[in-house]
Amino acid sequence: MPSILSISLLALCIIGSCSAWYQPAVGTSWQCALDPDIGSLDLPVEIYDIDLYTNSASVIDQLHQKGKQVICYFSAGTYEPNRPDSAEIKADKADVGKSLADEGWPEENWLNIRSDRIVDIMKKRIDTALAKGCDGVDPDNVDSYDNGGGGFTPPLTSQDSIAYLRNLTTYAHTATSSKHRRRNPRTTGLGIGLKNAGAIVKDTAGFLDWVVNEQCVQYDECSTFQPFIGKGKPVFHIEYKKQSKNVTKDCFGPDTGGFSTIIKPDESDLPAAVTFCPAGP
């Protein structure tokens, strides 16, 4: 039997006063800090992108009290040790593929995103984000198709990634909880974005809410992510000082029009330290 809350939400949507999930605009300012210490909660930005598991609900509440929106990061395509559900993920070895040692993450492994079991685990992560009060989720590592198919037979393909993201998007956009509803009484669900995965931008820009990109200036591929801008959706863009020390180039490189760019120290980590782009080149 549907709850009184569910009936009330449905009534709101029917009469047109219930809006969609959080959908930031092109150019929305942001900070990304995936270390446990996310630093100042008072930066002049609208969004904080933080780790889902190393931050408590109270930190998210504090950010909300300061008028910030919170996107919660998790790896949707790889196994990571020391996550609350790591043992559950590894319970079926058939779902755990090759190591990411060549990419610099030897303790991680690609996951079989075709597996219903893995999809269900990631939906539980979205539930956790909702329960903590996140406004959106940042699912990383969805490009196994570009990394030997994850080591699976048959290899994971770009179409597998698109189908996987569409499944998670439908779930995120329609999810709700009493806490989320109390804070956002006129919205439903969570926003969800793409992380890198340039080969599937054109296939996902229509249903995802933003894209987070790293190093498109360094690799001369920023035009790849412009379809999101064309659909009125932000590109949250990161370059790294250690890899590219020309901040002006990083902030105003070719095809970065409309991007929300921040500069971080080094690609191996995403600490609280951040450099914001100036108003103009």
UniProtKB/TrEMBL annotation:
Residues 1-20 form the signal peptide. Transmembrane segments: none annotated. Residues 29-266 form the Glycoside-hydrolase family GH114 TIM-barrel domain. Keywords: Signal. The keyword Signal applies. It catalyses: Hydrolysis of terminal, non-reducing alpha-D-galactose residues in alpha-D-galactosides, including galactose oligosaccharides, galactomannans and galactolipids. Its EC number is 3.2.1.22. GO terms for molecular function: alpha-galactosidase activity. It is an enzyme of class 3 (hydrolase). The keyword Signal applies. This is alpha-galactosidase.
